[in-house]
């Protein structure tokens, strides 16, 4: 089975080559869905000028080469090609898709090794809503690439190193390891940090101890490293609670924090300086990738070693990109990080290319994540102006979902499972249904709505199809048709479903999961029309029609469930 738009593109390109010569075989046929037919090809409009012929004449020449096409091709208006596919072709392709265990999704050719840097909370502070979007988008892309057969290397680049850890370790000693671990495991990292910071600012002896602790930490002192591990392990246990609640695929094995690169930083700087890419400027070791200037029109520096000898984000990122290319053998590296870091990553990529550490064979891409806003249009915060704790936000989503389904007659255990799935599905789908680089307003009322392009609407669509099969007394897997398209709503749904594999490929190529969300929403909308206009189990529906419509229901269910699983959105059997 093949996406109709891809089939049409290939056929029209061949027609172009036959009509006008092989040099036109790679022209874009400009095929788009049409309200007058299934699709419209507009290539004759742009090609007419190049050929010095009337567009309508060009369109007719193309149409003449499509005489054996499985459908009808008509020239319309000044030179449009209106293309309507034969229902028999759609039926055959849909039947093949139903029999395909992968539901029309192909595999990457060749498979790639893709490194995805995502989530990356700061261990010195609470995991807040700012980490939600990078975690959700990164995890969806990891799922999609793995389903396509590529090898995915997840990299959770924790902020787990640096000068703040001096005061954090000293505070741990002051309050005791047991109390510190309990506070960190409970998700009170922000409170812990604020208490340590307050002491650092007001107590000179604590400040002195903290600075000394930074020195022993950086030198690898065994006792200091033990205390650092105590702090980190407690913090990671809390992060894992958040990941488990969200249903993301990150594990401890995926942690590759800043501390991992600590031993590489000196060599990174020495090697860049030795090759002449890094130079001293005002006491700091800097990279000056070409094409970057500041407001004063002077070259913009990327500082990899500060004037005091310390290292920063640029140092770690340069070491990381080298490690990911040389050691992880990446073909493609995705950095799922906030849009405000765009300049930084452009400079890092340019500097890595300049150093020869990022060859043409490896793609490095910044997947920009837009800001989450409150209903007031400003950065999403609590009423007191603090960042919203992520776990509290997720729990509120579950609690609200529980209220919505409270009167549906489920026992407490089932109600809890459904509420969790609906709450997490609402939060994740709301994020994935918009372009990742766009800002969006976090609004529980909208995202938990059972109407519109929301997670609950998508989940309800799958649950409704499941209920059809329960009433029919058969499993979806047993519905094999044959599919017969006798009603426009059947035909529209089947034709749309054929585009599933191509959309997944497009999402993988462009790193734009919102395209899959849009496809699934259109699927659910078309199924709703089909459900209203095409009775499946009603008395009077003949056996052949019933079998056909059950098969179409089964195919729709598989597309919806597979697509939502790729996005990481849970799908409960009942709503």
In short:
The chain has 575 residues and is of the alpha/beta class. It has 21 helices and 13 strands.
Describe this structure in words.
Belongs to the class-I aminoacyl-tRNA synthetase family. The chain is an alpha/beta fold and 575 residues long. Helices cover 53% and strands 10% of the residues. The protein has helices at residues 4-20, 43-51, 55-64, 87-99, 132-147, 164-175, 177-185, 189-202, 204-218, 222-246, 265-274, 313-326, 342-355, 390-404, 412-432, 444-447, 455-472, 488-497, 500-510, 514-533, 543-567, and strands at 31-33, 39-41, 71-76, 80-85, 113-117, 151-155, 278-281, 284-287, 302-305, 332-338, 363-369, 372-373, 440-441. It has a 4-stranded antiparallel beta sheet. The chain has a 4-stranded parallel beta sheet with strand order 6-5-10-11, with helices on both faces. Strand 1 (31-33) and strand 2 form a beta hairpin. Helix 8 packs across helix 9 (204-218) and helix 19 (500-510) packs antiparallel against helix 20.
